[in-house]
Structure formats: structure tokens, C-alpha cells
Write a structure and sequence with these properties.
mainly alpha
Length: 217
């Protein structure tokens, strides 16, 4: 055996001896190892709990966000229906349900808006009856306009002549002399209005005035 090989064997034996008696090796107390292990397990448990809480909070947030979106969508649909004349809540609820069922099987990017769907559904027999109830009546006759008030001199003279012709005794008596008083159209109309179209107590004076003006014979 060579001298170098002998030295290596002696060095290995000396190292093993030193390691066996622990004179040069560092040792960690067992209770410190247990403390570190416990702290590590507690930290891992706490991290798992926080992760679960975060997941729960995210779920609640998404649920609240979805509920708010549904409320806003329902409000928008209701306002549109009210604007079209649908005041009954049950009818509005019916349209909202029908819309939700109609678009449920469509892809999100293929779903028509509520307004577009409602416009396209006007002729559907299921929905048209509701539209007919709020539609304005097309066959309703407009209210007749009041006849313009006849305040011209010709219209007034025509009314006076009709009143005279309706009275078989008119003209049977001697015509009254003109008293000099002038009766305007407004005055004559006022007198006729108070006497249901007749000339009343001022009849003779009015006729005399009209004869004097050459308007009647």
C-alpha cells in the first residue's frame, strides 16, 4: 500500500471519530424544532382561512353586483313600458318575464335589447292584445268645432228676419216710428240672447231703426 493511500485512510477515520463524538458538529434542540414546526403549521392554517374568507367575499360581491344589475335593468324596462302606456304592474311583469324567457337560450352577444324585442313583438298574437289596449282609438271622430259666432251685420239682419217670419202677427200692427235711438249689432245680439232669440220689449224700436236705415221694409 502506498503512503498516500495510508494517509487518506487515517484522515477518514479521524473525521468519522470527530463526528461521532460531536466535538465539531452543531446540534439544534428538539423543542426549538417543535416550536418552528408549530408556527409553520399555524401560519399555513391562517393563510388557508384568509383565502377562504377572500373567496367568500368575492362571491358575495359578485352576487350583490348581479342583483344590482337586475334591479337597474328592471327599472329601465319598467320606465320604457310606462312610457308606452302600460300602467298595470302585472302587464309589465308579464312582458319582462317573456323577454327573459325569449333570450335565455341565445348567446349574450346575440340577445336583442328589451326595447327592440318589444317593438318586434307588437304583431305577435300573444302580445298584440296588450298593445291594442293602450293604442289611441283610430276610428274616434274628432269633436266638432264650435260654429263661429255670427256677429256680422248681414247675419244679424238674417236672424231678425227669421224672427219676424216666425211670428205670424209681426207686421200686423202699425210700424212704430223711429225714436232716434241707434241699436248696435252688439246691443241687438244682447237683447236676442236675453229673449231666446226674440227682440223682446225693444222689438218695435229695433225694427224702426232698421227701417230708417233702409235695411228692412
Amino acid at each position: 500500500m502506498s503512503e498516500e493511500a495510508t494517509k487518506e485512510i487515517v484522515a477518514v477515520q479521524n473525521g468519522a471519530a470527530k463526528h461521532s463524538n460531536g466535538s465539531d458538529g452543531a446540534q439544534v434542540p428538539s423543542f426549538r424544532l417543535r416550536e418552528e414546526s408549530d408556527r409553520r403549521r399555524a401560519a399555513e392554517t391562517r393563510a388557508q382561512q384568509l383565502e377562504q374568507q377572500l373567496t367568500q367575499l368575492q362571491g358575495e360581491y359578485e352576487k350583490t353586483k348581479s342583483g344590482l344589475g337586475q334591479i337597474q335593468s328592471q327599472h329601465s324596462q319598467d320606465m320604457h313600458l310606462i312610457g308606452l302606456g302600460f300602467q298595470t304592474q302585472s302587464v309589465r311583469r308579464f312582458f319582462r318575464r317573456e323577454y327573459a324567457d325569449s333570450v335565455a337560450e341565445l348567446q349574450a352577444d346575440q340577445r336583442p335589447s328589451f326595447d327592440d324585442w318589444l317593438t318586434a313583438s307588437k304583431d305577435d298574437p300573444l302580445y298584440s292584445v296588450h298593445f291594442e289596449r293602450v293604442a289611441p282609438k283610430q276610428d274616434a271622430q274628432p269633436a266638432p268645432e264650435p260654429a263661429p259666432q255670427q256677429d256680422s251685420a248681414d247675419a244679424l239682419l238674417s236672424a231678425v228676419r227669421q224672427a219676424l217670419n216666425a211670428n205670424p202677427n209681426s207686421g200686423a200692427s202699425t210700424p212704430a216710428a223711429h225714436t232716434g235711438r241707434q241699436f248696435s249689432n252688439d246691443e241687438i245680439q244682447g237683447i236676442r240672447g236675453k229673449n231666446s232669440g226674440a227682440l223682446g220689449a225693444h222689438k218695435d224700436q229695433i225694427l224702426a231703426t232698421l227701417r230708417a236705415e233702409g235695411l228692412i221694409k
